[in-house]
Fold this sequence. Notes:
mainly alpha, 56% helix, Four Helix Bundle (Hemerythrin (Met), subunit A)
Amino acid sequence: MMDRLALLEGAYVPLSSVLGTLDTEEGWRPTGCAGWAVLDLIQHLLFDTQRALVALATPADVPADADAVGYWRAWQPTDAENAADLWRTRVTASASRGLAALTGSYAEATAAVLVAASRLDPAARVRTQGHVLRVGDLLSTLAVEAAVHHLDLVVSLDRPGPGGEPLAEVRMVLTELAGGSLPRRWDDATAARRGTGRSPLTAADRLELGPVAARFPLFG
C-alpha cells in the first residue's frame, strides 16, 4: 500500500496547482457536481482542509469505529442535504475576496494539513464527523475526496485531472464498497465517476454488475 501521506500529497499538490491557474471567468464554469460552479467547489474543498486540520488536532482515546472504506459507507446525502450544502457553501464563497483568495487559502491549508499529518503516527486515532479513524485512514479519505473533486473541477476546464495514485485509491474504496468487483473495462476515472453517481451506469454496466448495480452510487 502506498504511504498515505505521500498519497495525500499526490492528491493535494496537483489540485492546488490547477486551482492556481484559474481566472475569474473560469470560476463560474460548471463542474461535475450538479448545480455547483467552480467557485462553489473550491470553497467546499477549503472546508475539507479545515475539517482535516481539526481532525488532526483532535486525538481520540477510544478504538477506531471506521477505516478508509467504512467511512464512506454512510456517506449518502439526500438531495435536500446536497441543496442545503450548496447553499451554505455558495453563501460563504460569495463573502470571500474572490477566486484568487480562495485558491490561495486552499494552497496554504493543504500545505498545513500535510505538515500536521507528518507529525502524527499513522496508527494514532483522531475524531472527524462523528467517527474515530486512524490517521492513515483519515488521510485516505482526504485523498479520495480531493481526487473525486479534482475530476469534478476539470469537467469544463482544459486542465489535467488527478494523478494515478489518488484515482487508484478511489477505485480501491469503491471496489470494497461494491463487495470486491468493478468492471475491468472501466479506467479509474470512469470508476470514480460512475461509482459516485457523476455519470450513469450503462445497460452493459448493469448487466456486468448484476445485483450490485442497485447499490450505486456507492457514495455521494
